[in-house]
Every structure is written in structure tokens, then in C-alpha cells.
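Possible regression after last week's pipeline update?

I re-ran a chain I had predicted before the update to compare outputs. Posting the input and the new output here so someone can diff against the archived version. Not blocking, just want to make sure nothing changed silently.
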Amino acid sequence: MEYMFEAGFLGTRAPLFMDIIVIIVGLLPFLIAFTIWLAIKEMYRLHRTLQSILFLVTIISLVYFKYGMYTSGGFDFYIKDSSIDPTIGFYFLVFHIIIASITLIMWFAMMKFASADSQRKALPGLYSNSHKKSGMRLAFGILLTSITGVGVYWMLYIA
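New output (post-update):
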């Protein structure tokens, strides 16, 4: 797994694993918007399948990120080369982690409830409006996670 720590392809100080993750995190809101569009067009099976795939890719990316950060020295190792004050960087990282954690929990719960509602034939149908409102909150959480994730990348590898 040494390849993970080679120079990344985005031309920053970031290792390869972080370049891959920031691309996934940066694209996630657009991919989520596409799956929402599928639901609007009543392509529910494809919407459900792609949501599951995106959730799985997000979890795999999180594990890849955690492994890479722990084996490479962590936040302190990368922030020392940044022009950002380490204390500000740390608080921003904590803010990102809180938003990302809440969003992942919401996403998992929404998928679980949507699956159960679908099996009961209440989605689409009886719970569609509730699912839509929850989806809008979740999409906002994913957008915030993406923005703050790219912000952490910027702080650690560009600033």
C-alpha cells in the first residue's frame, strides 16, 4: 500500500490517497443531485441503486482516508507545512468531522427507512413527501461535508 503515499496527481503537496478522496468528495454533491433527478423522473430503482453505491463508495473512501492519515502521521504531520494556524485548522477539521458524521448517520437512516417504506409499498406513495424533505436536508449535509472536506484539503495541502 506504499503507492498511497506517492505524490498525488493534482499538483499539490497531497499524497495520492488524498487526491483520490478529494475528487470523490468534490463530485459527491453533483452525483447526489443526479440521483435526485432520477427520483424526480420516477426512476426509483436506479435512484435507490445509485444511492446505495454512492453510500458504499463514501464509506470505502472514509476507511481509505482513515488508514492513510493514521499511517502517514495524521493531521499534525500535514498541517506543519501549511500557512494556516494549526489551532484554526484543527477546529475547522473538528467542524468538518461533526458535519460529516451527522450526515453519514442521516444518510444511513434515510436509506434504512426508505428501504422499509418501499417494502411496505409506502414509498413512493404515503411517505414520499417526508422522504423528499429528509432528502433535501441530507443533500444539504452532503454539500456542507463536501465544501468543508475540500476546505480541509486546501488547508493541509495548498495553503
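Follow-up from reviewer: compared with the archived run. The chain has one domain: 2-157. Marking as no regression found.
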